Amino acid sequence: MLNDTYRHKGLRKQLAKLLKEKGIENAEVLKAIETVPRHLFLNSSFIERAYEDIAFPIGAGQTISRPHTVAFQTELLELKRGEKVLEIGTGSGYQTSILLEMGAKVFTIERQKELFDITKTFLPTIGYSTKFFYGDGYKGIPVFAPYDKIIITAGAPTIPDALLGQLKIGGRLVIPVGDKVQIMTLIEKIGAKQFEKTEYGEFKFVPLLEDKAGK
Ligand code: SAH
Question: Would the CB of 110 count as within 6 Å of ligand 1?
């Protein structure tokens, strides 16, 4: 793979080990962290620190989430190969690549045109091809619904109704809910209109913004 080296591979192994120590248990998730070359998703000024467990700016005022956050959200999805996943907030495409690496069919939406364009072009060059959409994630993508899993990678003031509607019965939706600080929240859909909610710890995300595609 382009500009991937044994040193980078070694750093990824260490990162996976660190995430395991921080409580990530799912072996498939850790394997994906070991495989996806996070340094290629970063601006060259941060490349040396790509395998530290920190967030970095990716342009348009947005950030690539910390590896621990990516792993935590992915673990909560309980993903199986071949499942259909809707992702809100493509950003750098790192989380998208983790999902693809785990065998998911991913539909991903981004509302910042600049990031949408860059990531849609970049991801296939490192072997991750999928369906990219430019638009407002609050609305989901009804034409491809229902989804087995839905992941929102920006902090949402509330859980968007449209997304609950596009989740399969038996499906799982993972969303950080809150304003300044977010509570990682898992929603399990147990009936057409029945949901079960479980809350996990506090996380910090850039906001999920409404109805402003392109601005
Ligand atoms: N998963 C990304 C994290 C990006 S940060 C990564 O691994 O890099 C969150 C992203 O959500 C930002 O790119 C932001 O522009 C996007 N976003 C915010 N509100 C959105 C909305 N309503 N619809 C789609 N994307 C949105």
Answer: yes
pLDDT tens for 152-200 read 999 999 999 999 999 999 999 999 999 999 999 999 999 999 999 999 9
54 domain-assigned: yes
3-state SS assignment for residue 70: helix
Catalytic (active site) residue 65 = yes
| Inside any domain, residue 1 | no
**Does the Cβ of 109 fall within 6 Å of ligand 1?**
yes
Count Cβ neighbours within 10 Å for each residue of 171-208 and write b for 16 or more, e otherwise: bbbbbbbbeeebebbbbbbeeeeeeeeeeeeebebbeb
Q: Which of 122, 206, 212 maximizes ligand 1 atoms within 8 Å of its Cβ, making it the mutation to test the pocket?
A: 206
Ligand 1 binding pocket includes 154 (Cβ within 6 Å): yes
pTM for the predicted model, two decimal places: 0.96
- Environment class of residue 209 by beta-carbon count within 10 Å: exposed (0-12), middle (13-18) or buried (19+)? middle
The CATH number of residue 22's host domain is 3.40.50.150
Domain that holds residue 159: 6-208
